TrEMBL record:
Enzyme Commission number, as recorded: 3.1.3.90
Tree of life domain: Bacteria
Enzyme class: hydrolase
GO molecular function annotations of the record: hydrolase activity
Protein name, per record: Maltose 6'-phosphate phosphatase
Keywords: Hydrolase
InterPro entries: Endo/exonu/phosph_ase_sf, Endo/exonuclease/phosphatase, TDP2-like
Record gene name: mapP
Endonuclease/exonuclease/phosphatase domain sequence ranges: 19-253
């Protein structure tokens, strides 16, 4: 099984349409099974298609590009978390080429007002894969030292929903795995297994370099974009993508891709 996670930084990028097309090209080439995306936005004022989606929804446009390669190979689930920059409904998406048998979105923050930028929703899908049910979460979590919306509370609200099913929790956790005693260690304390540590083959894992939104004073290399499982699994490879070495840069975050075997 092949997985990808990426914070898309959508509609904040120059040449955004070209980058959507490039992302679709790489997804088609790599043939991922499940793709977790964050900062997947649509304009507040864009024309509505249905009760949720609007015409400029990043995930919808990506789906249209993917359909050019293989019609309806990928389906997606999307919901928005909060209003960003006053003009976007910023959300999360999960794409998969497998049957979605259940999906949900839920708040993990104390604040549930979607007009407030610290409000966080998380999305989950359950798929059928080789006669097994697997859960996948796409997450965009807040910062460790935020007293108003504590990181611990957000993670606790996710973990309350994790049951006996094999579960993958992926995304932008806004806590560097290189920093001890903070968010990353808390994730490990909750029993989650870092696919990076399980992997037989890996690279540096760095997904952010220098200053980005939310890390305005950063001068370090950070591993913010992570993949976890609630069980020990076999991970053959995990590596950073869209970093200028392994495919072109398309966001202020690099992505992470992995290949796993859950049937061993």
């Amino acid at each position: 099984m092949k997985l990808l996670t990426l914070n898309c930084h959508s509609w904040q990028e120059e040449n955004q349409i070209d980058k959507i097309k490039y992302l679709a090209e790489v997804i088609n080439q790599k043939d991922y099974d499940v793709i977790a995306l964050q900062e997947v936005s649509q304009s507040v004022i864009a024309e509505s298609i249905d009760s949720k989606l609007k015409k400029d929804n990043f995930a919808l446009l990506l789906k249209e590009e993917l359909d050019r390669y293989s019609l309806n190979k990928y389906n997606f689930y999307w919901d928005f978390s909060h209003i960003g920059y006053d003009v976007y409904e910023e959300g999360l998406a999960i794409f998969t080429k497998h049957k979605i048998i259940d999906s949900e979105s839920f708040f993990v923050t104390r604040n549930k007002n979607r007009s407030y930028w610290k409000t966080r929703k998380i999305i989950r899908i359950r798929i059928s894969y080789n006669d097994r049910e697997l859960d996948f979460y796409s997450c965009h979590i807040g910062w460790w030292n935020d007293e108003e919306e504590p990181f611990k509370n957000q993670i606790d609200n996710i973990m309350k929903r994790v049951d006996e099913a094999t579960t993958f929790i992926m995304g932008d956790f806004n806590n560097s795995a290189f920093v001890k005693g903070e968010g990353y260690d808390y994730l490990i304390e909750k029993g989650l297994k870092d696919l990076y540590l399980l992997s037989e083959t890996k690279d540096s894992g760095v997904t952010v370099k220098g200053k980005i939104a939310g890390w305005d004073d950063n001068e370090e290399k950070l591993r913010l974009d992570l993949m976890f499982c609630n069980k020990e699994i076999k991970v053959m490879t995990i590596k950073v993508i869209f970093n200028g070495k392994n495919k072109a840069i398309i966001s202020d975050h690099y992505g992470v891709e992995s290949e796993i075997d859950i049937n061993f």
